[in-house]
Amino acid sequence: MRLLSYIKETTEPTVVPVVTLINSIMPELYRILSKHSWNVDDEMLIKILNGVFKRHGIEFDLSLKRKSIKRLLGWGAFMLDGSMEIYIEPFKVSDYFRRFVKNNKYGDFFSIRKNQFLRDLFDVMTHEYIHAMQNLKSKGKFADVEQRDDDSAYTYLSDKHEIEAYAQQAAIEIGRFGKSDTVERYLNTFDRDDPALKRFFKKLIFYSEKGLEA
Description:
mainly alpha
């Protein structure tokens, strides 16, 4: 089921459909990667990921931005037809999988807390799921803002839709993991007296008190 279809049919908190979808997909992904002995290059990995996720309206591709970031997944994009595109960082994911299965227990692969790929996937899907809800509420008038390069971080993170989405995402991260990379990103981008940072924390407090974690 596409996430947009799920939104129309549920009143559950944001995190529920994302976690449900990830949990339903990961056993199949583990089985397929195991057949390849975890020895796959980026091209093969994209093919495998799409074979597992595409039926749910989620498609993967390699990021061409080549940013120097800690994440395995670069960014995502919500499409107006209800689908989602997620871009992985070149060379990182396949290498991470090989090291992870060598150094961790079987059950750790399915843990969003322990598996960085799942953590990044959870973050990207949650963020884009929120954008999907924004679009639904705006009756198709929602306009997504893409961060095209590092110089546009200030403009991108200042956008009212992004502040709304990242504040919800940060509240979920804090509730689920006890800390938030999103909060750190805003603190590193804005001066402490910047109006955008103040709006972000105002929204963060609102959503934290609302209780978004399921």
